[in-house]
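Fold these two proteins, one after the other.
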Amino acid sequence: TGPYPEFPTDLQSPFMAFLAAGRGVSRIEERVFEGRFGIAGELEKMGALIRLEGKTAVIYGAGSLKGSAVKAADLRGGAALAVAALAAKGETVIEDCRHIERGYEHIIEKLQAIGANIWKETVA
């Protein structure tokens, strides 16, 4: 990642989810923000294999992810979990969705409109 015209750091988390669901070995070097790899642990709950080496994440694409209970710690990480959940086999429950909803207006309805089986459960 880096300033324009390099790869935008804001897309790093969703791209990591995309790479984790694919095949092959990929590397992401984060040169803008420290701690931007926080999503790696949540993706690992879904079956991803990610090794962190300082400012670099090495993603070993498993070819598929599995549904799991995960937590959205921030906006971009939450978006990454939504991407991963759409690609995963089985049900994924994302806790703390407020981060996602804060940044993506009507995201549930938009994803439903393109065929995603997604809903929000309200806890009393």
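Now the second one:
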Amino acid sequence: MEEELKLENQLCFSIYTASRLITRMYGKYLDKLDLTYLQYIVMMVLWENEIISVKTLGEKLYLDSGTLSPLLKKLENKKLISKKRNDNDERIVEVIISEKGKNLKNLAADIPGNLFRDTG
């Protein structure tokens, strides 16, 4: 019973540790773009969908509004996105990628290949 409760025997901890290590590996590439990992994954969604509701974005990334709201504010301050209320339903807030945000995609294009190379 005690063996089962040791931290090193927990699958969830192994996955958590691997996730943290990989996220840290992204850092050296994302620093050049002035993005955090969470900002980067938001931008990836926006490179695929130039306009998306905050609710849908949160669902895609498994982020709650308490995490997503300040994240979007920072991206807005960097002029990578803007937010507006939907014309047909003002309860819906939409996130729109800016031209600067679109241009960042070209600078990020090498990141997946670099990470693949770094991890072997």
